[in-house]
Amino acid sequence: MKLKEELYYKCEAFVNNRLQTVDDIISSNQKALQSETKSSAGDKHETGRAMLQLEMEKAGQQLAGINQMKEVLAKIDISKKSTIAHLGSVIETSSANYFLSISAGQLIVSGKVYFAISVSSPIGKLLLGKSINDELVFNNNRSIIKGIS
Q: Which of 51, 77, 99, 140 is the most buried (most CB within 10 A)?
């Protein structure tokens, strides 16, 4: 399997794991909400329902974020080759290696560390549109782009 494919599939797995976690939270909160309605009335009951409602809203926001990540991944063409950094590029610099995709953090492929980053992140914005041998400065650290695939 090619490097870009492997990084892409690791990002997909990251999104699917997050989705599973949020689905589990929503499911357990729905069950808790149903059992709350059957329990005794009063302030404690209302507080419990309000807390569950907040948890459901938070889970809903996380779900929206996961769907956004899925949309970004769907836009990536892993077969596209370019010498200019774009969504889906694997970028090797003198300081670190990046996969311009979603914010999935550190990924390890063939013993090498890559950082899956969003194009809207500060480092992602810096890398976007750059070419091999371009220099970038991030957090007062100077790096040179050694390769883009």
A: 99
Structural element, H or E, at residue 13: helix 3-38
As beta bridge partners, residue 83 has none
Structure tokens at 41: 């009335």
Contact 94, 144 (CB under 8 A): yes
Amino acid at 91: I
**108 has a pLDDT exceeding 70:** yes
CB 132, CB 83: distance < 8 Å: yes
Residue 144's SS3 state is strand
Cβ atoms within 10 Å of 103's Cβ, excluding its own:
17
Say how far apart CA 104 and CA 69 lie, in whole Å.
Answer: 9
Residues in the chain: 149
Confidence category of residue 87, pLDDT binned at 50, 70, 90: very high
- Cβ-based neighbours of 146, under 8 Å, separated by 6 or more: 92, 93, 94, 132
Banded model confidence at residue 49, pLDDT cuts 50, 70, 90: confident
Please check whether residue 52 is in contact with residue 32, taking contact to mean a CB–CB distance below 8 angstroms.
Answer: yes
